[in-house]
Design brief:
The complex is a heterodimer of chains A (about 240) and B (about 260). Chain A is α/β, with parallel strands linked by helices. Chain A has two domains: about 1-190, 3-Layer(aba) Sandwich (Rossmann fold); about 205-235, no CATH class. Chain A has helices at about 15-25, 45-50, 65-80, 120-125, 125-130, 145-155, 175-185; strands at about 1-5, 30-35, 55-60, 85-90, 105-115, 135, 160-165. Chain A has a seven-stranded parallel β-sheet with strand order 3-2-4-1-5-6-7, with helices on both faces. In chain A, strand 6 (about 135), helix 6 and strand 7 (about 160-165) form a beta-alpha-beta unit. The longest helix of chain A has 18 residues, at about 65-80. Chain B has helices at about 45-55, 75-80, 100-110, 120-130, 145-160, 180-185, 200-205, 225-250, and strands at about 10, 25-30, 35-40, 65-70, 85-90, 165-170, 190-195, 205-210, 215-220. The longest helix of chain B is centred in the C-terminal third of the chain and has 22 residues, at about 225-250. In chain B, helix 6 (about 180-185) links the parallel strand 6 and strand 7. By secondary structure, chain B is of the alpha/beta class. A six-stranded mixed β-sheet of chain B has the order 5-6-7-3-8-9, sandwiched between helices. In chain B, strands 2-1-4 form a three-stranded antiparallel β-sheet, with no helix packed on it. The mean pLDDT of chain B is about 90. Chain B is built from eight helices and nine strands. The chains are: A alpha/beta (about 240), B alpha/beta (about 260).
Chain lengths: ~240, ~260
C-alpha cells in the first residue's frame, strides 16, 4: 500500500486536491481516505458519498490535530489494509503552520494557495521543508509574474521541492501530482515508519485545558518572553 | 528546448458542454499573430486560454490538446516558468504580493537569473506607457489600481518573462491604453490572444475565435473587410477616451464631443 499525507493551511484547497486525486486514480487504485480535524469534519462523508470509497475521520478535540494524526496513523494504515486499499490518503487539519506531519515511506504533499500572500511560504517553512511536493492552488487567479515570484519564495525555503501549479477545482496541472503519487514506493514495513522531522507536537498544558496565561502557571516547556526569540526549538 | 524556438502552437478540438466534438480541425498560433476570443459570458473563453496556458493534453474539462511545433511540449515548457513560452495575464486585477513594485520585479528578475539590472526600471517605464496613473517603484503591489497592476504585469510579461505568446484576459476592463499595448506586443513579434468583450480590441485583432456553449463555434479572418468598422471604432474610442479623462479631471462636458 502507498501512503500520501496531505497538509497545508486552512482553506488552501487540500480537499479539492484530494478530490481530483481520487477522481483521476480511482479506476487504477483502491483508495482509502482519512481526514484529521479538530472539532468537526464533513469531508469523509462527502468523499464516501461522492466516490464510494472507504473514508473516515478523527477529531482531535483538545489535542493538537497533528499529534492526533501521528497517534492514529498506524491504525489507519491497518484499517486501509483491511479495506483492501492500495493507496491511503491522509488529510491534515491544517491549523498550525509549524507542523510537518509527513512520515517516511510516504509521499509528503503540501498544499498552499497562490493568493495567500508572498510571505506565506516563509511562514510555513517547516511544512515546506520536509515535503516532497508542493501543490499551489488557485493558480487561475494570478498572472505569470506573480506565479513566478510565489514559486521563488517556495524555492527559498526548499530549493528541491517539486512544485505543481493547479486550479484544483478544474483539475488543471494535476497530472504531475498523480504521477508523483503513483511513483512513490509502497510502504515496506509500517512498524518502521517515523516522522521526518520533530514538529512541536508536545502535549502542552494549554492543549490539555489549562487556561491561565503566563509561564508561571504551566509546566513542561516554559520560557520567559525575554529569554529567546524562539520560545522552543526542540531538545 | 529554448522557448524562443516556438514556431507555432496548435489547438486541437475538444468537446462542448453537451459532450459533442468541436467543429474545427486545428487552430494554429504563430509569432506576431493577434487573435481575439469573443462570445457571451460563460461561453468558455477563459477555459480556452487556460487550456493554452497549461498545454492541455485531453486532461482538462474541455478535452482539448495543445501542441508546440506539432508535438506534445517538453515537460519544462509546462512546469518551469523559465522555459514556459506562454504568459497569462488574468482578469484578476489585484496583485496579492506583499512587496513594493521594485521588490516584486527584482524578485522576478532574480528567479529568471537575468543579470541586466536596468530591466526593473525599464519594465516600470514600459508599464507607465500603458497607464495614465503613474506607477512608482516604491509603491506597494497591493496598493496599485487595477489599471496599474495590469500595465505592470503586461510590461513584465514582455520584458522579464519575455514569453513569445501572451494571453490577456479582458485587458480592457482595467482601463489601460489597449492600442499602445497591442502596438508594443506587435512590434515585439509576440503572439497575443485576447479574451475580450471590447469591439476595438476585437477589430484590432487579425483573427477572431467565436465561442459558444464551451466550444469554438467559428474562426473568422476579416482580412481587411472590417476596415471601415475599425476606423469608426477608433474614432469613437478616441471620443470616449477624451470624455473619460475630462470626467476624471472633474470637468463638465458641455462642448461638442465628436470633434
Amino acid at each position: 500500500m502507498r501512503l500520501a499525507v496531505v497538509a497545508g493551511p486552512p482553506s488552501a484547497g487540500k480537499t479539492a486536491v484530494v478530490r481530483q486525486t481520487i477522481r483521476s486514480l480511482r479506476d487504477r487504485h483502491r483508495i482509502a481516505y482519512l481526514k484529521i480535524d479538530v472539532v468537526r469534519a464533513f469531508e469523509d462523508e462527502e468523499i464516501a458519498a461522492e466516490f464510494g470509497i472507504p473514508a473516515r475521520k478523527v477529531c482531535s478535540g483538545d489535542l493538537c490535530p497533528d499529534h492526533a494524526g501521528v497517534m492514529v496513523m498506524r491504525d489507519a494504515i491497518a484499517w486501509a489494509g483491511e479495506e483492501g486499499a492500495d493507496l491511503l490518503l491522509v488529510e491534515s487539519a491544517g491549523l498550525c503552520l509549524r507542523c510537518s506531519p509527513y512520515t517516511t515511506q510516504a509521499l509528503g504533499i503540501v498544499v498552499l494557495s497562490a493568493v495567500s500572500g508572498t510571505n506565506t511560504p516563509l511562514k510555513m517553512a517547516a511544512m515546506l521543508a520536509l515535503a516532497d511536493i508542493a501543490v499551489v492552488t488557485r493558480i487561475d487567479l494570478v498572472s505569470q509574474a506573480e506565479k513566478e515570484v510565489f514559486r521563488e519564495r517556495i524555492r527559498e525555503v526548499n530549493p528541491d521541492l517539486d512544485i505543481v501549479e493547479t486550479n484544483a477545482v478544474q483539475g488543471t496541472g494535476m497530472r504531475y501530482l498523480l504521477r508523483a503519487i503513483e511513483d512513490c514506493p509502497p510502504i515496506t514495513d509500517p512498524g518502521t515508519i517515523v516522522l521526518r522531522g520533530a514538529p512541536p507536537l508536545g502535549v502542552c498544558t494549554v492543549c490539555i485545558g489549562k487556561t491561565e496565561i503566563g509561564w508561571q502557571h504551566h509546566f513542561g516547556v516554559v520560557r520567559r518572553l525575554e529569554d529567546a526569540d524562539y520560545l522552543f526549538r526542540g531538545d | 528546448m529554448d522557448p524562443s524556438a516556438v514556431r507555432e502552437i496548435t489547438i486541437l478540438p475538444g468537446r462542448n458542454r453537451n459532450g459533442e466534438p468541436e467543429r474545427f480541425e486545428a487552430i494554429t498560433i504563430r509569432p506576431g499573430d493577434t487573435i481575439s476570443i469573443v462570445g457571451p459570458t460563460g461561453s468558455g473563453k477563459s477555459a480556452l486560454i487556460n487550456d493554452i496556458e497549461v498545454f492541455a493534453r485531453n486532461d482538462t474539462a474541455t478535452g482539448r490538446t495543445v501542441l508546440v511545433n506539432g508535438e506534445y511540449p517538453p515537460e519544462e515548457f509546462v512546469r518551469d516558468p523559465a522555459y514556459k513560452p506562454v504568459a497569462l495575464i488574468t482578469q484578476n486585477t489585484r496583485c496579492l504580493a506583499d512587496l513594493t513594485v521594485e521588490e516584486f520585479l527584482a524578485m522576478h528578475v532574480r528567479s529568471r537569473k537575468i543579470e541586466d539590472e536596468s530591466i526593473v526600471g525599464r519594465t516600470i517605464d514600459l508599464a507607465n506607457e500603458f497607464t495614465g496613473e503613474k506607477i512608482r517603484s516604491c509603491a506597494r503591489m497591493t496598493a496599485l489600481s487595477g489599471g496599474q497592476t495590469r500595465s505592470l504585469l503586461v510590461a513584465d510579461a514582455v520584458l522579464v518573462a519575455a514569453a513569445p505568446v501572451l494571453l490577456l484576459d479582458e485587458v480592457e476592463n482595467a482601463g489601460i491604453f489597449k492600442e499602445r499595448v497591442i502596438e508594443v506586443l506587435r512590434a515585439g513579434g509576440k503572439a497575443v490572444i485576447f479574451v475580450t468583450h471590447d469591439p476595438l480590441v476585437s477589430l484590432l485583432s487579425a483573427r477572431r475565435i467565436v465561442m459558444r456553449d464551451g466550444a469554438v463555434e467559428r474562426v473568422i479572418e476579416p482580412d481587411g473587410r472590417e476596415i471601415a468598422a475599425l476606423r469608426e471604432a477608433l474614432r469613437l474610442d478616441g471620443i470616449l477616451h477624451r470624455m473619460r479623462e475630462q470626467i476624471r479631471a472633474g470637468d463638465l462636458i458641455t462642448g461638442p464631443v465628436g470633434a
